[in-house]
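Lecture 7, part B: from sequences to assemblies.

Below are the input chains for today's worked example.
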Amino acid sequence: MKTYAGIPEENATLEFSKVMLLTVPYDGTSTWGKGADKGPELFLDASENMELYDIETATEPYLEGVYLAGEVTEDSSPEAMTEAVYQKTKELLKYENKLFTLFGGEHSVSIGSIRAVGEKYENLTVLQLDAHTDLRPEFHGSTSNHACAVFEANQKHNLVQVGIRSMDKEEMQYVPEGRCFWAHQIAKKEDWIDDVLEKVSGNVYITIDLDAFDPAIAPSTGTPEPGGLQWYPTLELLKRVFEKCNVVAFDIVELMDSPMAKPTAFLAAKLYYKMLAYYHTSKS
Ligand SMILES: [Mn+2]
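Predicted structure of the full complex, as structure tokens:
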């Protein structure tokens, strides 16, 4: 039996695990760099080569279990993929007291999972770390395009955006007022994490587009934008969100295959595991 990060089988069963991991190797609508369909495979491979002790929290998050909840392979259309992710997420959310996590795939995979999580939890904040606003109502004839990843979330929930540094002028009308933290402002402001935390509360879904990070540390994404988030401040933000709020789900997307994919794959693996460490620590 293949397990997450090669952890023991007894830590990887549905019954035992406090974390469920769904993978969606979808790359149907990306416009520039292709290869996000290889994201889950690269992430799982990197995870197997990672130390399972977390120094910062002095914990071994895998002891709480991680269940591989399968993958969604529907790719006949962006809408069909979104519906399939929605149905699968809904099915998994029936298991109480388990953290739902998803690894993509391009960012459109989040539309269906946010929809399902939003139906289950009231007062949902969607915290988006991303270089791009992803607020187009539709793009290339589809509302399930990666450029539309959080349009619906913004209509229904409390959307908070962090690290944004690229958008179309038309999207400005949709940017959540006072809840978009631009990368150029983050770069200059020392206490930006406090500002973000003021806007995040209650039940939280965290969606992380890896292009939120600076391409110097995460180069293998579809559209690497200069001036991105750094590693430690991002972890600090996430740690404090887990401490303050009830994080009910998170996803990580846009890991792209390329000859230089390894450092980004490892960053994604480590990021995922750090988030598990913060989650379990916040619950104990
Ligand atoms: Mn995105």
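Note for the exam: The chain is about 30% helix and 15% strand. Keep this in mind when comparing with the next example.
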